[in-house]
């Protein structure tokens, strides 16, 4: 199984390359030193693949783009450095898997190949957002394949989710990966900036680096869009995809350098993976029942990330291969805090059924206010997996400890799970279900029973 070894934020000013800068690069020596440090660290990690996210590739309004050519070529001839040219082998298996998985999860992902080039008149050579960081890497280390990604102007949350999909792909393959998020910060830091000047340029640079240094992902996702736009940056979306790739991974962040003598912010940062995954609210005790753990992860992920968690790997096979109705119950201090479920399956598998019902139990149960982030540590979860309901003509076939009941009259339906505290008789069980459905006991209603496998 592949893994993410580390991730780096790097700028990409062509002037930093001696063949382009011709001495001017010395004005950003701090950035050069930081890039050399990053390159040495990558060399020590020895990744089989480097995945780079660039703002200067094939940028579409409604899609991300992954380079699909077998050989990836590029140079800096546009900047007068004709002798700075590079060639990399594409990790075509990883590239195509990312494209496939992204599209299957509703994120439009294009393959940059001859067909796309012909359709949109694209130059398939690598851009300077890729060449500049790899110029430094190649001085120290060259035994890697490359995956090249160009971000699109999708919603911030979609770019982050795209990153989580990439992480899933990496884990499904064999290569260990280093991620490079290529991007400059504000282009409006000084009066001689290429895009003009605004005092908000400095505010943006300081804010994004502060949040990255503390890995405050939610605050980054929620940054003021007006501030981001006015700063005239090109790295923010690269950062979002990178953070998605690092989702729930335990990293140690460090801001290595920041400067902007040419009016453009050049920030260099590292995110070194320590353990595999965080042992915090996003991952419960590994000894916990996997059904319960998934419910816990799902609600915590939604409340802290405002997104539905992707189906994780490592679950029991039946959670991927079988379909069933499920109920997720939440308790706090011994009292019910939410319970939502499905009598029959509506999702692709049990895992997805649990994920969505856990989120609904915590946020949509009309009897309770939505669960807050402060409450998460106090919530106790249980998951019931339901058998197929069967009609019952005689109450003697019911047992409130063994069977749950469903009552139906037209569009009105009431459900009560089995083995509930304080429900000791069939009559109590049915009457509660009738009240939930708004059915009067003397009405002619249908009665069903079901069994559950309870996970606590």
From TrEMBL:
Pfam families the record matches: AMMECR1, LigB
Chain ranges of the AMMECR1 domain: 286-456
Record NCBIfam families: AmmeMemoSam_A, AmmeMemoSam_B, TIGR00296 family protein
PROSITE patterns xref list: AMMECR1
Protein name: AmmeMemoRadiSam system protein A
GO MF terms, alphabetically ordered: ferrous iron binding; oxidoreductase activity, acting on single donors with incorporation of molecular oxygen, incorporation of two atoms of oxygen
Top-rank lineage group of the source organism: Bacteria
